[in-house]
């Protein structure tokens, strides 16, 4: 049974920092691509950051330079550090995993597994 569990959400002040974590269980092997999407009220789902098992990353233009996605070794976990948080960063953040493809798109339909989300508010 595959499960992605996010943690670390909460409230952050504008300009502040927050780190989200996601642990993946139920895989027989390390996920090729892990990352984060978000959804804000009134907006569609948006891919923000992805990282493959070799450490190659992708960022959306809206977060580039402020967000850092990371993963370590063979751990099936992914982290998202939010720096210089802005009001538009508020929303639900979802962890995603693709077992078979390297990170190449922010099209959410290619990701097989999703977490339940963790909420981030920016005040």
Structure characterization notes:
This protein is mainly beta and 123 residues long. The chain has no helices and eleven strands. It has strands at residues 3-7, 10-12, 18-25, 33-39, 45-52, 57-59, 67-70, 77-82, 91-98, 113-114, 118-122. Strand 4 and strand 5 form a beta hairpin. The N and C termini lie far apart (37 Å). The mean pLDDT is 94.
Give structural attributes.
123 residues; mainly beta; 7-stranded mixed sheet; 4-stranded antiparallel sheet
Strand content: over 45%
Mean pLDDT: 94
- Strands, count: 11
Unreliable runs: none
- N-end to C-end Cα span: 37 Å
SSE pattern, N- to C-terminal: EEEEEEEEEEE
Structural class: mainly beta
Task: Summarize it.
The protein has strands spanning 3-7, 10-12, 18-25, 33-39, 45-52, 57-59, 67-70, 77-82, 91-98, 113-114, 118-122.
What does the secondary structure layout of this molecule look like, with pairings?
Elements: E1 3-7, E2 10-12, E3 18-25, E4 33-39, E5 45-52, E6 57-59, E7 67-70, E8 77-82, E9 91-98, E10 113-114, E11 118-122
Parallel strand pairs: 2-11
Antiparallel strand pairs: 1-3, 3-8, 4-5, 4-9, 5-6, 7-8, 9-10, 9-11
């Amino acid at each position: 049974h595959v499960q992605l569990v996010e943690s670390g959400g909460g409230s952050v002040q504008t300009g502040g920092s927050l780190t989200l974590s996601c642990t993946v269980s139920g895989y027989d092997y390390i996920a090729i691509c892990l990352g984060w999407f978000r959804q804000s009220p009134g907006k569609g789902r948006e891919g923000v950051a992805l990282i493959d098992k070799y450490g190659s990353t992708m960022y959306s233009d809206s977060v580039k330079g402020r967000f850092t996605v990371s993963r370590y070794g063979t751990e099936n976990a992914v982290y998202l550090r939010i720096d210089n948080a802005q009001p538009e960063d508020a929303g639900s953040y979802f962890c995603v995993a693709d077992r078979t493809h390297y990170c190449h798109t922010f099209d959410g339909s290619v990701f097989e597994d999703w977490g339940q989300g963790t909420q981030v508010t920016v005040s």
